[in-house]
Amino acid sequence: MLSAAIPVSSPPAPTAGKIMLVGLGPGSQAHLTARARAAIAEADTVIGYVTYIRLVAELLEGKEIIRKSMTEELDRALEALERARQGRKVALISSGDAGVYGMAGPTFEVLFQAGWTPDAEIEVEIVPGASALNTCAALVGAPLTHDFCAISLSDLLTPWPTIARRLDAVAYADFVVALYNPKSGRRAQQIVEAQRIFLRHRRADTPVAIVKSAYRPKQHIAFTTLEHLAEADIGMLSTVLIGNSNTFVRDGLMVTPRGYANKYEVAAGERATLGGEQAGRSLSTGLAGWLETIRASGRSAAELAAEYRLPEDYVAAALTPPPGAAPS
Amino acid sequence: MLSAAIPVSSPPAPTAGKIMLVGLGPGSQAHLTARARAAIAEADTVIGYVTYIRLVAELLEGKEIIRKSMTEELDRALEALERARQGRKVALISSGDAGVYGMAGPTFEVLFQAGWTPDAEIEVEIVPGASALNTCAALVGAPLTHDFCAISLSDLLTPWPTIARRLDAVAYADFVVALYNPKSGRRAQQIVEAQRIFLRHRRADTPVAIVKSAYRPKQHIAFTTLEHLAEADIGMLSTVLIGNSNTFVRDGLMVTPRGYANKYEVAAGERATLGGEQAGRSLSTGLAGWLETIRASGRSAAELAAEYRLPEDYVAAALTPPPGAAPS
Predict the structure, then answer these.
(1) Within this chain, do residues B162 and B251 fall inside the same structural domain, yes or no?
(2) Cross-chain residue pair A155–B285, CB shorter than 8 Å
(3) Contacts (Cβ under 8 Å, ≥6 apart) of B30
(4) Residue B72 and residue B136: Cα distance in Å, rounded?
(5) Nearest CB to A250: which of B112, B197, B282?
(6) Do A139 and A125 share a structural domain?
(7) Can you tell me which residues the record assigns to a coiled coil (chains A, B) (predicted)?
(8) Which is nearest to B107 in space by CA: B16, B20, B205, B217?
(9) Tens digit of pLDDT for each residue in A261-291?
(10) Going by C-beta distance under 8 Å and a sequence separation of 6 or more, which residues neighbour residue B167?
(11) Which residues pair with A16 in a beta bridge?
């Protein structure tokens, strides 16, 4: 856990300062954790983007409030450090989770550059919250369920080729994808590029959900498909969820199956496994079964690599059983 | 939002049944949201894995409690549906977030197969919670910060080639990666394969954090590197976080930079942009700048694709400005 000791460049404060990075979750009172509320209550100073300050206004009486605008993350972190050096307890608030495109990373970068260490007299605590991908997903059904990723389309700090390479990789490998910062007044083309990249791998009718202001008064949910993503109504407060190749929309709910149909007759529950499969055991196409299959096939690494869409060197290594023991 | 009407195959119940899929977060009282507590309080019946039932035991007085073991997710969903058809309010509890490798997906699969629709008299609500990747991240510093993904190493329901392909794609594209279900008594080889795949792309000294039982009494945090991942102590209750190529560990904290160093002199805050960069604007290597650069370069799509590690057809399309308007 993160702990505390003496600050480097100020005289010791009478009481120990503290910085709490608080994830508010989606921004409704009901979805705050008890720890998030307690951390804000504990704070002398609360710093955050004006929308988040407003969201928790009734918890802020008597506290110093510093409102910062969107592009001032580093300044907020520096201000928090200054107050903490004076012995104050500071809550830096973010919507969602502070660790997800939030204040946690920048704050540590600033703290380290300023000579702070976890042994310093300033304690740092990160209070986790549900991120937009979880809260938006909860409103549309069960789109995540299986392997997923989050990609920010903001190129304010990240080169476009890096973003494009990531989009292509996850579209190829069939992840459910949450796009953060999908579009703004100045950045309207990145979502078009993202669509183009996804269409290299994903069907045009792939389900897409667009959720704006989850759990807040102006909440809005829309479903569309990959084909129409570029012209969809998407703004600064939207999160875009792109389904994988198994995701379906039914009765207004977006659901990504967990894979039970690979093993069970779903409606009959866990008693009804399909032929050759066992409850609680790896699939016949799980690691051990797959290794047996490819080793018994007599086929080349190149052929198998093409069939399974895996790197050839990886398949070549897999074809060679380790000396001695059978695969587990 | 998800709503309610008449069930298909039972006589109408006197009161409307309800199924609430509740994410408990990491499993400490402090990290429950107000809505999660309220949903459990509202329930007549609470169904869940015995560990989660125990975690919220003090909220369960007077309720019907159904404990299920790990591989009985479909059965739990069927039982919830039965109770809800009788007009009961049922809370299906998961640790973390119900939508992330949790009960939400399987529950909807079961409900749809049983003929339920959102207009049925059984309302379904998903109460989001912070998932393991967020709560584990909060304990080790700020490892997520930038684009990340979650991959389950469980091949009980997913073919190994699918998992391997995903691991390779995200290692190549430099995501921070959270491995769920990394290892168990029966599945000890998958983590070794994952390490091998990552080493194709990531340095051997890439930081890795292993967090067990986050925010619970037996919490344990360990740092290691990719090189030593295969022999690390990892169990059923562990989440593994693998850093990207910029992630560093310093003073016992794992931090992935947000990219501020691409634009700013970090210690001086937002006033000190590096040459050619502007606060609040895309990087010079953002989409518009990159398109200008490649179009002015005179180089072929093949050369540029190799340099930027992007698909050649994507680069070829990008080299051609759309007729008329300049890129936004």
Answers:
(1) yes
(2) yes
(3) A33, A34, A35, A38, B215
(4) 26
(5) B112
(6) no
(7) none
(8) B20
(9) 666 665 566 666 777 777 777 778 899 999 9
(10) B151, B177, B193, B194, B197, B198
(11) none
Does B156 share its domain with B112? Answer: no
Residue A298 lies in a domain: yes
CA-based R_g, chain B, Å: 24
* Chain B contact for A34 (CB, 8 A cutoff): yes
Closest by Cβ to A168, choosing from B108, B134, B311: B311
* Minimal-distance CA residue of chain A relative to B314: A197
Q: To which residue do tokens 């069907």 refer?
A: A203
Model pLDDT for residues A45-82, shown as the tens digit of each residue: 999 888 889 888 989 999 999 988 766 777 888 889 99
* Location of structure tokens 């759990």: A215
C-beta atoms of A159 and B290 within 8 A: yes
Mark which of A219, A235, A255 sits at the end of a domain.
A255
For residue B1, give the nearest of B124, B128, B129 by alpha carbon.
B124
In 3-state terms, what secondary structure has residue A127? strand
pLDDT (mean) for A25-44: 93
Q: 3-state class of A272 per DSSP? A: coil
- As a whole number of angstroms, the distance between CA B309 and CA B304 comes to 8
Mutation target to probe the A interface, by most A beta carbons within 10 A, among B42, B113, B146, B308 is: B146
Sign for the pseudo-dihedral over CA of A111, A116, A118, A121: negative
Closest partner CB to B105 (pick from A169, A258, A281): A258
Q: What is the pLDDT of residue A265?
A: 61
Residue A119 amino acid letter: D
**Distance between CA B273 and CA B292 in Å, rounded?**
21
Give chain A positions within 8 Å (CB) of B213. Answer: none
Q: B130 and A130 in contact (C-beta within 8 Å)?
A: yes
Question: Shortest CA distance to A111 belongs to which of A86, A77, A144?
Answer: A77
Pairing of strands A123-127, A18-23: parallel
Return phi, psi of residue B126, to 5°.
Answer: -110, 120
**Residue ranges making up the domain that contains A32:** 18-130
**Which secondary-structure segment (H or E) carries B124?**
strand B123-127
Q: Does A78 share its domain with A157?
A: no
Query: Which ipTM did the prediction report?
Result: 0.90
Neighbouring residues of A274: CB distance < 8 A, sequence distance ≥ 6 = A262, A263, A264, A265
- Is B245 buried (19+), middle (13-18) or exposed (0-12) by CB count in 10 A? exposed
Q: How is B255-292 classified by DSSP, letter by letter?
A: E---SGGGTB-GGGGGG-BPTT--TTS--TTSHHHHHH
